[in-house]
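Lecture 7 notes: from sequence to structure.

We start with a single chain of 668 residues. Read the sequence below before looking at the structure.
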Amino acid sequence: MNKKIKILHLEDSQEDSELINSIIDCGKIGYDYFLTDNEKDYLNILEKEHINLILSDYNLPDYNGNEALKVAREKYVHIPFIFVSGTMGEDAAINAMLNGATDYVLKNKLERLVPAIKRALHEYELESKRKQAVQALQESEEKFKSIFEGSSDAIMLLNEKGFFDCNSRTLEIFGINSKEEFVKFHPADLSPPAQSDGRDSFECAAEKIKNTFQQGMNHFEWNHRHSNGDDFPAEVFLSAINLGGERVIQATVRDITERKRAEQEIIIANKELLFQNVEKEKQAAELIKAKEKAEESDNLKSAFLNNLSHEIRTPMNQILGFASFLKDPELTESQRDDYIGIINSQSHQLLHIITDIVEISKITTGQIDLQLSTFNLGEMMDELFASFKPKSEHRNLQLRFSKKITDEDAIIRGDLVKLKQIFSNLIENAIKYTDAGSIDVTYSREGDRLIVTVKDTGIGIEEQEKQVIFDQFRQIEITMSRKYGGLGLGLSISNAYIRMMSGLIRVESKPGEGSTFFVEIPYLPAIQVSDRNMKVIRTLAVSRNDWRDKTLLIAEDEESNVHFLEEVLRSTGIHLLIAVNGLEAVELCKIHPEIAVVLMDIKMPRMDGLEAMKLIKSFRRDLPVIAVTAFAMTSDREFFLEAGCDDYLPKPFTQDDLIAKVRKFIGR
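Now the structure, written as tokens:
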């Protein structure tokens, strides 16, 4: 696409805007970009700029995509309009198409964006050509009619002997100097030797003249020839009239070269539009198919809920059971340690299940965004290796990581948290489904793509299962006698993240011979690497904390949580103040200037933690406030920090987690 276009994007997420910009750039579309998130700027840009394409989110905080579409169709009907949204369902998509939207693209399927843009612009160009052709045809017909009625067509008079008169336009058309010269010509002399059907022009002209004398009139198309030798199509009207008592023929010749060209262009444009209509019908069929798939998904969700009940009750049963054993005074120290280890292990398993459920819910409703940062891919992979090595050794499996990328190229820009979760899910699955052998992880760069492979010697995957393992709630095993646990969400979460990054994931596998998962994502080199960004932050050596001269405020309405915090901090000697709601926390900060740090629960009665934090910051700006919350998704940390909190501690947390956070602000 050579011509530079202007794109107006209605979007409130800067990260989505940057991602969509990068995708359009990769599609080699020349464009100028205008971004807005409100109605006023949207209307102003449309009025002042010659916009060629509108992209719009479906829901915005202060505006609505449907309203934007309505304005575009009322005032700027010629501009293609594409919804790019993460929350748009099938019904909303169908309604949008019926209301005039050109297309829609879901944010978790942004690989469709560039083809959708090119198709929309191509359709608009075809429609413009068709309208121009129709307009040209109309103008041509009006022109010829005016010429005919104003006697500016070539008008000739002839009798049985031949021509005897003509108008000046005839002389111009055929390049003849005078009427005296013209009357010497036979009608066939103004034509090529043969007509388009191969008939001799002389014989055919004589037949047309004879028929006109007999029938009174004749109308046909004819090939004429200019004096310079060029042939041209003409529309000929022959009328038998009485002139001075003599039966003569008036011949009117109209050059229809432009009309023929316009008709041909209309034929071509109509064929193209017919093809586009077929494509739209295919899209409608795909929407119907998607609806059917959604109904199938409902059935899968029912099976998933049964599985969910099993997966939650299993660790809960062990947690409750072994917790009850701890009351036995005759337990040995070894037995007590074993039971506590089982309780901890099953608690982490339960937390992992809950995290996956909430994460897939956010993905489904389009609430997940990419959080780009600069990091070292090699260091991330080293952390994964160290994390999974004990688990693989416990199962007598060899875990090997192979680096095929330079240290310089390993400094990349991307979403560190999501990439780490993607590769953790793949390695976790490889270990889970491999009873003997090895797991090999390889990462490399190939041009503008990062390639990561996870190969195992496990149970493998049947061919028909390869088509569904990346769907939500789908697993290789779905029977009640499953050997391997899990909810079937890991691969669907990974697949959603990879699609958000404009990448792809695929698998090669044979039953009994293992599987190899391939992940390809765009290689984004670091924009700027500073020592601060790439510095490895290591945890300080654990030492005994003596905080007897410090005061800490706990803002928490759950008594059991307060008790846990008191027990964790008891060994430090720190003085504790307790607030059971946000209002009380604010008042305590006013009357106790010795408070050095605040542990602020977010969800509390009377006044929530965020509102309390903002009031405290209004009169004690430098007082550190740590948000303590059960909101623990990948994007929540950034939300609380941007709101004004100094740090973030997600529930559940360990004793080491809490001590490390407090030490960060008051030292040892």
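Residues 257-325 form the longest helix (69 residues). Keep this in mind for problem set 3.
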